């Protein structure tokens, strides 16, 4: 009996070790997914010898609906269903909940409310790379929700640009992966110092799910306008995180990321240094 258990254990271990992960984007027409993203940001600035803390917490709920599938591509509609936001700075607090009509006319409601109910469309190929999109409204709300003056997704890579990996799919290389394999991806903007580099590692495959760990670096410089004045914001930081994806479809189920960054804001001849920590928790579930 003992020998039999040893033999069974040997073949079981071999089967686990042999599991591999391949890149894919398997969707069915009419399929609906609910995506919830919770972003939290703490930012500390030094101004005229004083320390100033800013806090931004945002939750955005979206509905992803597969509108069409062919043997070559998938069209996905993304509708923002709800935004809940909280911000505090210098003793002042602002709150917004798109489900509360009384919040529509406050400052945060005026900034974010127009994005609620908006639908955009993203077309991806069977590997999950974006071939077309009209998601300007989603990019805009990502900037607003990020709370960092134009840093989409709080400094993480901008979502769903043509040629990029669709953010609802595991960003894998186009070769089979086994546990322990590593790979990297980078986004560099032309004629710009902006660069995002991410390193990945396949940690585990269990029960039809794969777990990937990631870390990387972010470097960004942007110009934005605040109160009629031009502001240049620079940022350098490190990212860490994990995500869990469905092996059969390639769809991400859970994703957690953290950004720790430093930088400065240049405005009217003044340089304001800052430190920032941002976390993002994302869940995608069947509707």
Task: Write a structural description.
With 287 residues, the chain is mainly β. Helix content is 12%, strand content 56%. It has 3 helices and 14 strands. The chain has helices spanning 2-18, 107-112, 136-146, and strands at 20-21, 32-47, 50-69, 73-89, 92-97, 119-125, 130-133, 177-178, 182-188, 195-206, 209-226, 229-246, 252-267, 270-286. Strands 2, 3, 4, 5, 6, 7, 9, 10, 11, 12, 13 and 14 form a 12-stranded antiparallel β-sheet that branches. The longest helix has 17 residues, at 2-18. The termini are far apart. The relative contact order is 0.16.
Task: Tell me briefly what this model is.
12% of the residues lie in helices and 56% in strands.
What's the total helix number?
A: 3
Strand content: over 45%
Q: C-alpha Rg, in Å?
A: 21 Å
Helix content bin: 10-25%
| Mean pLDDT over the residues | 84
Low-pLDDT stretches are 1-17, 141-158
**Order of secondary-structure elements:** HEEEEEHEEHEEEEEEE
Reported for the largest beta sheet, the result is: 12 strands, antiparallel
Secondary-structure-based class equals mainly beta
Distance between the termini: 47 Å
The outline comes out as: globular
Give me the count of strands: 14
List its traits.
287 residues; mainly beta; twelve-stranded antiparallel beta sheet; 3 helices; disordered N terminus
Question: How are the secondary structure elements laid out?
Answer:
Layout: H1 2-18, E1 20-21, E2 32-47, E3 50-69, E4 73-89, E5 92-97, H2 107-112, E6 119-125, E7 130-133, H3 136-146, E8 177-178, E9 182-188, E10 195-206, E11 209-226, E12 229-246, E13 252-267, E14 270-286
Antiparallel strand pairs: 1-8, 2-3, 2-14, 3-4, 4-5, 4-6, 6-7, 9-10, 10-11, 11-12, 12-13, 13-14
